[in-house]
Fold this protein.
Amino acid sequence: MADSRIQASAQRVKAAIRQYGAQVTSYAVPVALTRTAHDAREELRRTLPATFDRPTPYTVNSTYVQPASKASPTAWVGFKDGWDKGVPATRYLLPNVEGGPRREKSMERQLRGSGLLAPGMFAVPGEEAQLDAYGNMPRSQIVRILSQVRAFGEQGYDANRTNSARSRAKRRKNGHFVALRGNASGLPPGIYRRDGADARPVILFVKRPTYRPRFPFGAIIERAVRANIGRRFKEALAQVDARFAARGR
C-alpha cells in the first residue's frame, strides 16, 4: 500500500524544546504533523485531476490521513484500502504510482470464469461503448452486456432474462455477442453489438495493459511537507503555549 510518513526533524524539535519546553513541544508536535498531513492530502486531491482523465469523486477522495499522537508522533498519508464503496483505490491507482501491469477487474473475472476471455487477455472499452462523464462504462451497461453473452451463470443476472420467442429474436438482431480469437468473421476478439448486419465493437480483448509511473505520490507529499511543516509547527507551538499559559502551566 502506498503511503508516506510525516515526521518533525530532530533539529526542529530540539530547538522548540529549548524555546518552549518539552511539555509544550510534546503536545504541539502531533498537532503540527497532523495538520501538515492534511495539507499534503489536499495537494494530492488537487493534483489527481491534473494527472488522470476525469477522475471520479471517489478517486479524488481516495486518500486518507492517519493523525499523529503523543505516543506515535508520526502522521501518515495513504490510499484508502477498504471495500465499503466498491473497488479499493489501491487496486487501480497503485500501478500508476509504482508502474506495472493493471490488475484484473470484476468484469474480466466473470468473462474469464465463463471461458469467454482467454488467459492473459483483458477487456477495454471499444468505440461503441457508452461512457459516463468520467470515461467509464456504467455498471448497468456492463451487467446488460454480460447477461446477454451469458457470463453470469445460471444464478446470476442471466436467470432473470425472458426467453420468449420475441425476446430471442430481438437479441439476435440487436443483442451482444462474443467474437473469440480466430473467429470466422475476422473480427478482433471482443464483445460486439449487433446493428442489423453490422457488428459494433463495445468491448475489446487486448493484452494486459502495463502502466508507467505517472503519479508521483511520494514527491507530491514531500513537496507539501516542505512547504507547510514550518508554518504548521509555529502555529501549533504558539497555540499550545498559549493554552498552557492560560492554565498557569
In short: The chain has two domains: 3-99+211-246, 103-208. Residues 103-208 form one domain. Helices lie at 10-20, 22-51, 57-60, 89-98, 106-113, 139-148, 165-174, 217-246. The first strand starts at residue 3 and ends at 6.
